[in-house]
Amino acid sequence: INTQVTHRVRERVTMARFIALWIGTLIQGDLESVNRIAEKYGFTNMGQVSALKHEEGSYLHNYQTCIWHINICTNVPFKVEWLQQQVLQRRVKRISRAGHISPIPMRRNNPVWNRLWYIQCSDSKACQSHMNIAAAWRRGYTGKGVVVSVLDDGIEREHPDLKPNYDPFASFDVNGQDQDRSSNSAVNYHGTQCAGVVAAAANSSRCTVGVSFHARIGGIRMLDGDVTDIVEAQSLSYSPRYIDVYLAGWGPKDDGATLDGPGPLTRLVLQNGVQTGRQGRGSIFVWPSGNGGERGDYCSCDGYSNSIYTVSISSSTQRGSQPDYLEPCPSTLATAYDNLITCDLQQSCSTAQSGTSLAASVAAGVIALTLEANPSLTWRDLQHIIVRTSKAHHLSAPDWRVNGAGYKVSHLYGFGLLDAESMVKEAERWKQVPSQHECAEEAAIQLSRLIHLGSALTSVHEATGCSGKALQHVAYVEHVVVRVTISHGRRGDLSITLTSPSGTTSQLLANRPLDNSTEGFQNWEFMTAHCWGEQAAGEWTLKIQDTPSQKRDGSKLGLLFLFWSLVIYGTAERPYPAHRERARSAEIPTDSDLSEEYNGPCDPECGDDGCEGPGPQQCVTCLHFFLKFKNNTRLCVSGCPTGFWGDRRRCKRCYASCESCTGSRNDQCTSCQPGHHLTEGTNTCTAICGENFYLDHDANMCRKCSENCLKCTSYSICTECKPHTSLQGNRCQRSCAAGFYHDPQEVACRPCHQACATCAGAGVEACNTCAEGYLMEEWRCVSSCSAGFYATEPNPEIADGCDASCLTCVGPSRWNCSSCSSGHSLQRGACVVNTECTDGRSAVIHVLFLTRLVHKFK
A Gene Ontology biological process annotation (predicted)? Predict the structure, then answer.
């Protein structure tokens, strides 16, 4: 139950990140007795957190009250198993602010359609993006019948692209505890952007088309207020029998120093979600891997993307290169693209520049297509399909390698780029994998010693895969979790690797230059998916390296205490038949002159017809593609290498200037060799962009300028116009008087919005300059500053955003606050963090004792 205090606080102990909210587990007591007890002690019963129940059948409750002395709590006349005060969590949205663009008429014969490069296909029906989203559409899958909910800052449900697919039953305002799930300020754009990528409607779209444009889309608003373990748990457990996919575009702070993850209730919700959600098939939780790459962050320090219950998604640029913000780690399952066109607030559009939350949104859409193809898939079935179908393609990484089961993996991209067509095809014929087993084995050695500079500590554990326990036995690996406890002077100086019995090495942790923490790791769980499909039994080797940084005295040795255990998740039986072990039915001739028939395992790239030996060059037929050499030999490969294209399973050479292609002609390129750019519309590679084209550096493409542009720097930014048109802002339009814009559909000049002095189109969002009495706030003209904005000096016609610590500010700078956000106090015009309890110890004393309240009181 949630309980709220109704009388004054007698003695309060404050701490900067603790709030007056509690959560606990009761061993016994029904709802009536709880209400009676709450009233007796001055509380109000606020209801259950979620539908979760305690293992013994009692409900999981939380308490909202102030911090009390020990003797206030010890007289409670019921048995408390666990009680914890809530802490404010710092959760950041994993995207940068998008660039605003004007509404786009989405017609396939419109040049803008080609800007949806991650979806659209060339005239030869081959998807340039390699994600094959349009190919999945052509098979009839558009997300129909699948429900996706975005856990974020709300979504603009009236946006023309989202309104047709908006689902109120998949939406809730956890911050306000009501049904209003809309974004309520100019800074809450993130959920709307993610929702647009997933399920923007296809017909009469204003901005874009969603990956699963017939899926139902909802919004759980939970980032627009205090975020606690309770808030996250309520969001992730909202309507689990109705919602199929939960998309979270946020996580702990990506600053290269934070070590954080879900609280105890959220961990329980995630576990319960995969067990009971979707009518027992398991809820699908999609998470971005993180945006802290530029700060040396590592996503194994994020307990959300590091969980076996989430699908952690990495990001790639269109050219297949690593974004600067990308965080590596072995828990990443797969990759999708970002830098996409999507929806924004005020019924506008945006070109989002970066962030793994966009890639996770693409993945959520692809997963919706897959669930439509087979609604009976379990959460583990889906992860198996992702592992089996993702491709390395053109993704550039120095650490691609093949694991012991034949899967190609990378710490940057997981198992590769999602392939929507392959996923729906696999789903169509999928048979449910065997039940999951969990095998926990503790390492026999506990170490406590000094490590010399540059040296490493190595511990080897001989795992049995719990072979003697039928319900725990794991023969074939899915996820591997390493729980470690380490005490060390500077956490950022440590790096950790795990090597499997098959020889696959996972970098569980890399050095983090900005992590100066002395707290080490307390039973932290590192997860790797890189051993997927390998054998569980054998030697697992944990290696810890101490590399002192300049911020630490290199003459001092690092005291390190280590305890670790291994948890292997997987199956006792092979999860699916191996085509490479197909038995031969032909009789073996007795003629001694004939060579002996090969009956051993085939290479994973061999087809169902078997092989003549173990290598990829000895297959009778190939599963995917083959390269043919001058000596008439063949080599089976999972995908055609750079410079080749697939023609009826054979890899053929592309034209000389093409890096990838759909045919051998010069106009069938899909990407170009270094020094060349792909020309939009002609699919040719050229060294210099021609007239009416501009160079899109991110995509390495020569793209067409808009219709009336003679020269441009982007599609919507013209620098020189064709005859009989003039430059209006950054668009070339037929000349109209000031205060009017040219309407190409009506072939007439129309008046601008009253807030605009000049404009490029209809609506307040199309203003180039503002009318008298209005000021420009981000991308729109307003009559007065919104909350969180102020009029700048010496340009009062422009509004700028206040500092994050301010709720409101007055200028002349963003730090001149007039009121403060939660957790801050106003002091001499500035908002400072509340720090009444500087070391936290006095508050912690009153919190931690409660976890030991397991006594039964009268």
Answer: peptide hormone processing
